[in-house]
Amino acid sequence: MLQTVSWLLPLLTLYLMTAVATHLVMSFAQTLMHYKLGHHPMGGKLFRNHINFHHSYYSKDHLVSKTYLSDWPAPHHDTRI
């Protein structure tokens, strides 16, 4: 029993560290892509969709709202993007 625990504990620690590191790297990548592609014209279609849809609901002056998103009138955006 003790032998099983002695090799299982480092393995579980390695899995946990891998999961945490993966989460942190992907969160950083998502944030970087959001900033670089969603807020700069070099993002092409992603930029236009982000500006026309996301920023029609959220802007710097109201990141949090008491009104649920689906209760707002839908903004007009080009679906051909």
What do you see in this structure?
The radius of gyration is 21 Å and the shape is elongated. The protein has helices at residues 2-38, 45-57. The chain is mainly α.
For the record, give the distance between the C-alpha atoms at the N and C termini, rounded to a whole number. 60 Å
Radius of gyration, Cα only, in angstroms? 21 Å
What is the helix/strand order? HH
Question: Unreliable runs, pLDDT <50, ≥5 residues?
Answer: none
What is the overall pLDDT average?
Answer: 79
In terms of structural class, how would the helical and strand content be classed? mainly alpha
Question: Helix coverage percent of residues?
Answer: 55-70%
Largest sheet: none
Work out the strand percent: under 5%
* Structure summary, number of beta strands: 0
Count of DSSP-assigned helices: 2
Overall shape: it is elongated
Give a brief rundown of this model.
With 81 residues, this protein is mainly α.
Give the arrangement of secondary structure elements.
Blueprint: H1 2-38, H2 45-57
Which terms summarize this structure?
81 residues; elongated; 2 helices; mainly alpha
